[in-house]
Amino acid sequence: MVSSQASDLVVTNRDIAVAVWFSVAAVFAATRPGLREGVAGILRGLWGPLGAMLVLYGCYVAAVVAVAARVGVWNVGLGKETVAWFFVPGLALLFSFSRASRERAYLARRVLSVIGLTAIIEFYVGLAVFPLVVELVLLPVVVVLSVFSAAAGFNPETRIVKVVADRLIAVVGLAVLFGTAVVLVGQWESLDKTQLARTFALPIWLTLAAAPFVYAFSLYANYEEHFIRLALNSPGKRATTRAKVALVLGYHFRNHELSKFKGPVAWNLARAETLGDARRKIAEHRRAVQEEEAREREAAARLVRFAGVTGTDEHGEQLDQREFAESKEALDRLVTFHEAQYEERVGYRPNLIELVGDLVGKKLPADPGIVMRVGRKGRAWYAWRRTVTGWCLGVGAVGPPPDAWTYQAPKPPDGFPSATATGWKRGRFAGVED
Phi/psi of residue 248, each to 5°? Predict the structure, then answer.
């Protein structure tokens, strides 16, 4: 059976399978006190501002659909697809409002992803509906394998489970693609091509239309957060109002820039004596942020420009700095953990990397390849990592905290930190966040 053949609303085997498994999940949740209380708490939360936001968003999407129906790009046959879009990608888009402020051009990327290869494959797979028994089996299999893949990826010891789950998902995916092709070939002449075109276009124009709402809500939430912070730091209502006006005049619709309004600048702005002084403080902060972003862009461009280039710059630093910043941050974080766990009686912990490994290399590959060695009595330690460039970076200590050393050389360290050993220097890596 092929879906989307007409403008009438049709219930397919896939819809029945989803309804069956959803009912099973609902009954299971209702019979478990913990789950039941959790669901009840979520429903109670919908009566507050969250519920109002969802109602407003639903009304906005309904208005968009009404306009689409007037111009002929929507009909009742798209009802299921519209509801599915609202409750899955539509709500996901809405609840990503914070990313719309933090990440530059985030909404533009979300819109482009709707017409990407993944979206096309999803549309293609959705064209054909299999027998009910197949749909009933297929849905839980895909869900369970996806959960296994996601959960196993967090622990290096269970990574083999993720590999197996991913391969099984690939096999199931290929089988579904092949089955869809067989069904489509057999029923190609009976397909309603116009309705299929409407179905394909639906998530594209819905996402495009929803993006302005999400942006507006993101901007509102962004301002609301900063208004609260200003009120907490302000000496009075008049100063609060002055700071809020200056903030709006300084940033107006610059959502991403507004998200950078952090640190002591809020305290300084709340205590500005005049509107002009407040606007000057905002202008200075914006300029500082723009300069910092320019330096970050230059650093990123440098990584590309000198990738694979040997040699050093005028400061004696390696030209090819790929993975340097990430490795320094991971190693410096390891220093912080060692200092926090150090005890005079036992010294440095030899198993620390096993305990905090996932927290250390957040920006590095799943297996960052950090090698660590602790002295026999726990009084000294060092760790190093080879970057993708082949250059080795390391850290260590030969005494209790705050003793700290850094290492940079083309080869791994052959022992504990020492002033006479090549590559070792006292101190910690500069400009690295803990």
Answer: -65, -40
